[in-house]
Write a structure and sequence with these properties.
The chain is α/β, with parallel strands linked by helices and 367 residues long. The chain is built from 13 helices and 12 strands. It has helices spanning 3-9, 27-34, 38-45, 53-65, 72-78, 99-114, 136-142, 159-166, 190-203, 219-234, 251-264, 276-288, 322-337; strands at residues 84-88, 118-122, 148-152, 171-174, 184-188, 209-213, 244-246, 270-273, 298-303, 316-319, 346-349, 352-354. The radius of gyration is 27 Å and the shape is elongated.
């Protein structure tokens, strides 16, 4: 007689079987004890409405009494799931070494583990020159190694959306992709955040305010540039193309963009950089040109990475809840994977301004 039958035979009608601490209880044990099929037990534990309310209650009560826990690997196989989330990180020059992504991944991982999921990292492609169809992203999808994906840096025209929809793979963007409303995303309020930065600089007496934007194909670049233009307009400051330069969200990219701005507009007294790493690069460039920060040039970044508090001068920045963004992305994706209807498909976080030493009141022309 097998273990389940042996336990069942020792159980009197109406009595509760005793748990053997040395051998874990299985779903087959529950089925034999309750004299129902294993598939009925499985559906009852999942709360399937096709199983009567009374039977669901009996199964769930016995499972609690015997401290029954489903085997995660078997459960995943039964549902054709891997319990793995794929995270698509940017390719070089920006990568996982960026402090923003390190904190974002921490939020994803800490939430995912509480739900029994692990993370598989993947780059979009080995390099920017590699064809889009031959990418680690497409390979990871085709290998069926993940249940869903968290995508970063949505682009204005993002081929990944249709690719994943056609294959019915759940996905969530970090960043508003700015297209179909059914695409799920989490993001900080980019436009409002940039307006906080510009308002702060204007309050310090600055009007010649430059902007280091991100890559032109990314939606975050567009939204932050829109926030910059809207804030200037609200303060009656004309938008000047010579005050804007393109960066790539890296420190060297910020350095090059700041040099470009100073070549074309040496009279600027303040600069907003679309992320903190470019702001740090801008500070290096300003010093290279003999500008003092913040006495001659105020600098404000965007993101609120921890490193910003330790550079010299400490960086004024628009602060995003980076860790919480990661948690929210993982929470939303797992709901999609489990075929739950999320309360919100778009999660937008308000941002705050953290004022430190890199911004200061504009000096008078004689000062």
């Amino acid at each position: 007689m097998d273990r389940g039958a042996d336990r069942a035979s020792s159980t009197q009608a109406g009595a509760t079987p005793e748990e053997d601490d040395d051998v874990p209880v299985t779903m087959q044990d529950l089925a034999q004890w309750l004299k129902i099929s294993k598939s009925t037990v499985s559906r009852a534990l999942a709360g399937d409405p096709r199983v009567s309310k009374e039977t669901r209650a009996r199964v769930q009560q016995l499972a609690r009494e015997l401290n029954y826990h489903p085997h995660s690997a078997a459960s995943g196989l039964a549902k054709r799931r891997t319990n793995v989330i794929g995270l698509v990180i940017p390719f070089a020059p920006r990568s996982l070494s960026d402090p923003f992504f390190l904190e974002f991944v921490g939020g994803i991982g800490d939430y995912a583990i509480t739900k029994g999921f692990s993370i598989l990292l993947s780059s979009p492609r080995a390099s920017q020159d590699e064809p889009a169809g031959n990418t680690a992203f497409t390979k990871i999808v085709s290998s069926h190694r993940v249940d869903g994906l968290i995508l970063t840096e949505p682009r204005v025209t993002d081929e990944r959306v249709d690719f994943l929809k056609e294959r019915d793979i759940p996905f969530v963007f970090l960043g508003n992709p700015g297209r179909n409303s059914d695409v799920c995303w989490v993001d900080g309020d980019n436009e409002a955040g940039v307006e906080l930065a510009v308002d702060h600089l204007v309050s310090l007496g600055h009007r010649d305010i430059a902007c280091i934007a991100g890559p032109p194909d990314q939606t975050a670049t567009f939204r932050r540039l829109e926030g910059y233009r809207a804030a200037l307009q609200r303060h009656g400051i004309p938008y000047d193309e010579s005050h804007v330069a393109q960066g790539d969200f890296t420190e060297p990219g910020g350095y090059r963009a700041m040099m470009d701005i100073l070549d074309r507009s040496p009279g600027v007294t303040a600069v907003f950089a679309s992320n903190d790493m470019m702001a740090i690069g801008a500070i290096s460039a300003a010093r290279q040109r003999g500008f003092r920060v913040p006495q001659d040039l105020s600098v404000v970044g965007f993101d609120g990475i921890a490193l910003g508090a330790y550079v010299t001068p400490a960086l004024t920045t628009v602060t995003q809840p980076i860790y919480r963004l990661g948690q929210a992305a993982a929470e939303l994706l797992i709901k999609l994977i489990e075929r739950q209807t999320p309360a919100e498909r778009h999660v937008l976080f308000p941002l705050t301004l953290t004022v430190r030493e890199s911004s200061a009141r504009k000096l008078d022309s004689g000062g």
